[in-house]
Amino acid sequence: MVKIFINNKEYEVPENITVLEAAQKIGLQIPTLCHHPELEPIGACRVCVVEIEGARTLQPACTTKVYDGMKIKTNSDRVVNSIKFNLSLIMANHPNDCMYCEADQRCELKKLVHIYDVRPLFPPTDLSDVFDDSSPSIQRDLSRCIKCQRCVRVCSEIQGMNIYSMIERGYKTIPQTAFDVPVYETDCISCGQCANLCPVGAIYETPDWKKVLRLIERKDKILIAQTAPAVRVAIGEEFGMEPGSISTGKMVAAVKRLGFDYVFDTNFAADLTIMEEGTELIHRLKEGGPFPMFTSCCPGWINLLEKQYPEFINNVSSAKSPQQMMSSVIKTYFAKKIGVDPEDIVVVSIMPCTAKKDEITRPQQKIKLEDGREIKATDYVITTREFAKLIKFKEINFMGLPDEEYDNPLGTSTGAGAIFGVTGGVMEAALRTAYEILTEEKLPKLEFTAVRGLEGIREAEIDIKGKKFKVAIAHGTASVKRLLDDMKDGRRYYDFVEIMACLGGCIGGGGQPKSLDPEILQKRANAIYTIDERSTLRRSHENPDVQKLYAEFLEKPYSHIAHKLLHTYYTD
Ligand code: HC1
Ligand code: SF4
């Protein structure tokens, strides 16, 4: 520990931390823009400057380490004037049209401009004219870019994709793709992490919320929503709830208040996925491969597979993602049940993920109806953030909503379906079912704790009746690529591998509420495991409505009709 003085008060803080971290530990706010707890600090924006006794110039708090006896001022006139000056420099290269910006209340710049009452000090400079709407998942409007480099850093440090680098100089500097090509023409996997970390409105998810708003207002179709496992443990943050709050009931009620006719649970389809993927695994065990088998539900991972690791294409499960299984079942089984033409139904998915927007545009994800028509399974995907925007736009009092229930018959789910939302969850859900089917015995303990945690790569050996089963889990694409490179070069071997493109799995998806809380993933993960613990049913094969779906419509897992509706293929 070292002794430091901040604004003339004495504190003891751990050595080797930064001034910013020390201030945060004692509950003192220092403004930041380029800083993000998940990224290496670079001290680029100069908004976190502080005065340190003995230093000639002001120092950025995010990169300056504390030392014993350090005397820091965070609120002197010199500091405040400098912050204002630096913010007004940023403002001179930023449009003043907040009413048209996708960042709206989430804009970190707008918040600081308000707090510091920044007025224009400099004449406006030319703004970048790069506008890129090539991707179904993310859009870029670089006229709004404040050069914080968070997008560049998250895409390289956490995702290992290196899609952007900073080009040009001075106020013309922008994060751009190689050769300035539209982002969808690069190896971008549509994970949306650049949009999630953007502090302003320069990169954001493709705004499908506007189309959904029109649908709700027009109301000439049957509107059905499905909600992903990870949305319920994060949506509350948009309304001031503590991270890790579980708001399933309020979330369902909000979807209904928006005007949807039915709301179904993607967790139901996660159970269905386990039935198909688990059966595929058992088939492969009987047929001798191909192994390793990879999970297939993360569309960011599927993009990475096709773009950079095509040698593993035959190893990936052919099971569609729960999102796509759910929509396929809605437009066939459920449409028949309620006696409507599938084309009179619109399915909107509420997802923590931007790559899900991309997944629904894949031609092989269309479903073929009995009469030969080929239709889209999911019509629109909105992220957790877009969902919150719709709730606010419609002035629904989220906090005051009662808890409401999903509709049936696609609203029942098990704890195994719930844990899909966190890294390791798909593996654990699959093991619960595969173990019991292969051994014909009840699992003595349902929790496979060896596959849990937030380490980037985890591995475990599972004993299934004397057969050792080697499994691995990777999340955050930089870790995923490390694992895949090792597997490609024969340095690692596994039987079954779960891959999630985003840190933490879907709880850390690119469409989740933005946060500067370093504990956020752990809190959301804990909430997901709490949902599982509280569930009366915790194995996918025990879901009574999934059993009924097979009995009434799909016959059995891996049947001909299940293959037609619930499985897909990948191309390089
Ligand atoms: Fe996910 Fe999935 S868990 S991919 O992370 O398999 O998005 O939440 O909906 O489809 O169920 C996301 C989450 C989600 C699918 C499921
Ligand atoms: Fe990189 Fe993901 Fe953004 Fe694509 S969407 S540029 S892969 S962070």
Automatic annotation (TrEMBL):
Q: Which CDD domains match?
A: fer2
Residue ranges constituting the 2Fe-2S ferredoxin-type domain according to the UniProt record = 1-78
A GO molecular function term, named singly, is: ferredoxin hydrogenase activity
Q: Which InterPro entries match?
A: 2Fe-2S_ferredoxin-like_sf, 2Fe-2S_ferredoxin-type, 4Fe4S_Fe-S-bd, 4Fe4S_Fe_S_CS, Cytosolic_Fe-S_CAF, Fe_hydrogenase, Fe_hydrogenase_lsu_C, Fe_hydrogenase_ssu
Which residue numbers delimit the 4Fe-4S His(Cys)3-ligated-type domain?
78-117
Report the protein name in the record: NADH-quinone oxidoreductase subunit G
Species source reads: Thermosipho atlanticus DSM 15807
- Report any Pfam family annotated for this entry: Fe_hyd_lg_C
* Annotated 4Fe-4S ferredoxin-type domain residues: 136-166, 179-208
Give the source's domain of life in one word: Bacteria
Alphabetical UniProt keywords: 4Fe-4S, Iron, Iron-sulfur, Metal-binding, Repeat
